[in-house]
Design goal:
EC 2.4.1.122, four-stranded mixed β-sheet, Fringe-like_glycosylTrfase, transmembrane helix, alpha+beta, 17 helices, single chain, signal-anchor, 3 domains, 15 strands, about 40% helix, C1GALT1/C1GALT1_chp1
């Protein structure tokens, strides 16, 4: 079943209205539905609704409407198809690895109350993040249906009107029915471009991606189609890396931002420093032995030599792992406030903004640069090859899922 804000038929497919079951008192008077009422008006007049997609009103009010959809959609699909074993909910910008997901679900009993997803928290409510996809079993839907009463619906709508998010409200309603979330791995909250390839996930089956653009949708679909043609029905993150990522890596790539992680500045907190950064360490020239002075003179630049003449000290950039504990504390103190607070990637900037109570909804970025301000990126290919070489061979997805289900799923 496909849901949208407005019920209609497109290309021979019926599109269900996601807000049809919401009470009229909210749909036709509550401020969250201002944009919805405008959509209905324009649709009735035969206007092109796609022209509203990039407007500020669509961006803001789209989120306001979102919180009203999750609970009604969940109940509607059960009413329409009450005998389905598993109800899988997926948004338009998400991609699901179906063979891997079905392998996991084959290990579980759909008659039991399962609510599966990527666990997040809002206050004391544990919920499955809607953007990554979530799964509800037939047993859980039956329990939800038993508390689907006019009194409860009215109470849930009052709570939604003052609440936060649709996926949070769905989790709260399921909790009332006696169904709690079970977190599962493999559901990723960003697109393929943002994924951090590493040892912890190398042999883990991939289930879903979020914020996936049309180009990446096509890449993932072609990847899966080719594997199916080769009778390879399942895959892990390692397989995605080898097929879709490795061939695009190079030691240097001009006019390209490789979306690497932000610099990591850490003090004596026990966290590791940025291994590629040289930390400023001020040393006293007079405390060096004659042999050490001779070694240092070879590496000193003119500015450092002037500092020695004027102040008897010099500052040298030193790798974090070459510093003693005392030197690490000194290097940390030398960092200026702008260095400590700066964010050199959009991802890090966004994460920091979200920790701020009044964080902005959007961050504007100028794309492109003039000839004097161009970006080049690169990858440490030798290190990548060494990483792949030391990784153990992955077990089959079928075995991985069996071991995971026995160990982690009650």
């Amino acid at each position: 079943m496909v849901f949208s804000d407005i019920e209609q038929d497109i290309g021979g497919h019926h599109i269900y209205g996601s807000l049809e079951e919401v009470s009229d008192k909210y749909k036709y008077s509550h401020r969250d539905f201002n944009f919805y009422r405008r959509l209905l008006d324009l649709f009735a007049k035969g206007q092109d609704l796609s022209l509203l997609a990039d407007t500020k009103q669509a961006t803001g009010n789209g989120w306001d409407l979102d919180e009203w959809k999750f609970v009604p959609i969940a109940h509607r699909v059960y009413v329409e198809q009450p005998d389905i074993k598993w109800y899988i909910f997926l948004q338009a910008d998400a991609y699901m690895g179906w063979s891997n997901l079905l392998e996991l679900l084959s290990k579980l009993n759909p008659d039991k109350p399962w609510y599966l997803g990527a666990t997040h928290f809002y206050g004391d409510v544990a919920f499955a993040h809607g953007g990554m996809g979530y799964i509800i079993s037939n047993g859980a839907m039956r329990m939800l249906d038993t508390i689907w009463t006019p009194q409860n619906i009215a109470r849930w709508e009052r709570r939604t009107a003052a609440g936060c998010c649709g996926d949070v409200e769905l989790a709260a309603v399921l909790q009332e029915a006696g169904v709690n979330i079970t977190g599962i791995p493999g559901l990723y909250g960003e697109s393929l471009s943002w994924f951090e390839w590493g040892e912890s996930k190398w042999c883990e089956p991939a289930l879903s991606w979020h914020h996936v653009k049309a180009h990446d949708m096509e890449l993932l679909w072609q990847f899966e189609t080719q594997r199916l043609a080769e009778n390879e029905t399942h895959y892990v993150y390692r397989d995605l890396f080898h097929k879709l990522v490795k061939s695009h890596l190079a030691s240097t790539r001009s006019d390209w931002d490789n979306l690497s992680r932000d610099r990591v500045y850490t003090g004596p907190s026990g966290l590791h420093g940025d291994e590629d950064r040289r930390y400023p360490l001020r040393s006293k020239w007079g405390e060096l032995s004659d042999e050490e002075k001779e070694e240092q003179r070879v590496e000193l630049n003119d500015e450092q030599k002037k500092d020695i003449e004027s102040y008897g000290t010099y500052t040298k950039g030193t790798r974090w792992d070459e510093l003693s504990d005392e030197e690490k504390e000194t290097a940390w103190r030398e960092l200026t406030e702008p260095e400590l607070e700066a964010h050199t990637s959009l991802r890090s900037c966004r994460a920091a903004c979200e920790l701020w109570e009044e964080y902005p909804v959007d961050v504007d970025v100028d794309v492109g640069a003039d000839a004097t301000n161009r970006t080049s990126s690169g990858w440490m290919e030798a290190r990548i090859d060494a990483f792949q070489g030391r990784m153990i061979e992955c077990e089959t997805v079928q075995d991985w899922m069996s071991h995971y289900a026995k160990k982690e799923l009650p």
